[in-house]
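anyone seen this seq b4? input:
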Amino acid sequence: MYRPPIYPRNKLVGRADQVHELAVKAHIESICMQYMRAARHDLPTTGNPINRTVLLRAWKYSHKYRKLLVTNIVLIVFGAIIGSLPPLVFETLINDAIGKHSMRLLYQLALLAAGLTLAQTVMGVATRWLNSVIGEGLIFDLRVSLFQHIQKMPISFFMRTQTGAVLSRLNNDVIGAQNAVATVNSVLSDALTILTTLFFMTRISVPVTLISLIAVPSILFADRFFGKKLTMLARTQMQKNAEMSTITTERFNVSGALLVKLFGRAGEESRQFSAKAAAVRRAGVSMALVSRSYSAILGLVGGLATIAVYLIGGREAILGTASVGGIVALAQYVTRLTSPLTDLASAKVNLLQAFVSFERVFEVLDAKPAISEAPDAVEISDVRGGIVFDDVSFSYPNTPYVVSLEPANRKGDEATGAALKHISLSIQPGEFVALVGHSGAGKSTLSSLVSRLYDPVEGSILLDGINLKQFKLQSLTDSIGVVTQDPHLFHDTIRANLLYAKPEATDAQLDLAIRQARIDGLVADLPQGLDTIVGERGYRLSGGEKQRIAIARVLLKKPAIVILDEATSHLDSENEVLIQEALAEALRGRTSLVIAHRLSTIVQADRIVVLSRGEIVEMGTHTELLELRGTYSELFRTQFLAREVS
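predicted toks r here
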């Protein structure tokens, strides 16, 4: 929870109203931030019990920060005590130093007040620093754990989940850890502040203390009433901001901006954005009005409480049962009560929100990766590239990994059926095998199993006679190179995108891969050469240029096995010639599994495997399969020849 700044409470009573107003403004900001976080989570918090399992797990997660937590608690205790002393000093200053005209005592008490203020300031800074160290440390630990865990999830996890929801866990939900620390510290600090304040108030005047407590129900009622209003307005404001952000996000990326320009919709887009921005403006005005009303009510209650102190206390001072200094001290103590009372009123909501965040983080951390490394896994050495599919069957998972990360309108989790059925296939080291078949036949699925993006449901896959599950994942990944139809390039330089495959590569190795992939001419023509930024997803390059960079990346990696997933489809003839030359370099001497969409690719294959509905229906060379006049012959005539003619 956001903690209002510590304001010095050792000023004379003339400053009480200003201090109170500052504290109220800080509390308004605190409430707005709290409810905006609740809106972002979009989960109910009020009325829900704190899950003890989550609480214990969160506490265990903070194990290495426990010494800092204890130190922080000690500072909070001393800070609450020291913060309660200045009004007593001013009471003595007014009654004894000023009342008895003692300059020496005046200087001594002023010096003491300055020392207490300095100590309170130092403790406040130290507490804030410890809060930050603990909170940011927990955020760092949770964020890194989440990132590492999400990277272990299978590709199907990313295909099912919403990217924005995953990013929200990394960017927003982990902040609940810091909020929990801040809220616990705040509750402790506020409780101690109230106790010490009431203790010293009763020492001065019990009747005045009881009168000042009449303001407590009013403060709690105002906090509850306006809290509901602020919740509703904060949710509306967040929703309107989200709608406005959606427009900018979708229109300001390369694809969106291109679509707007091609259809000449700039004017209409501006009108839509203006309407969304106007809604944000209206929500902001409403939020400001309600916040100011809340501030005014709390200010009124605090002001009336202060007036009551002066009225009742002044009467006691006139009657001789109380001192003037005591009345000034009581007025300062009343001001000191307002902020912690309003903080405690919303402490439960803040804690619930914080632990909802923990719960959402743990929900992702508890999702089990589908691909795991065996405890006795070994490194791959001297890979020859022989691959055997032994009665392999596979179905894509149809149950959610994390329900809350998937679209809310998903219609159940119907089974998708078997993607592969009893596949038995042996590929010799160095063999070039082409996979062909209609869309959905299982070609990409078969190739994905080789690089262990998925594991078979039944059967096994062997590499050089050893089950893939027996190899270390990094070792297996290093042995396989994949080029997809639409290769991904990071928004970085060509050099950085190439070195992603092998960061330690030398300039000589880099130059060789560039020449082999036939992009040396491209690099030479660019003003900044290898240091040219390729743009988001490589949009500054043509499709053929991106493909050749992807091939160069694989060549730099030097894998024993190469998988080409539709890597030459949808290219013009000039680019295809260059890519075919680059592919010849990439495939030379390596086991190759190629999903073919071009005639030139399949006729060069040592063997062609024809898939239909997840099963191997034909296998042989190009000539042998044509002579069969079966599925391949039909595909060749209707797809490959037709594509070549067009």
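The longest helix spans residues 266-319. Strands lie at 387-395, 418-427, 432-436, 458-463, 466-467, 480-484, 561-565, 591-595, 607-612, 615-620. kinda curious what u guys think
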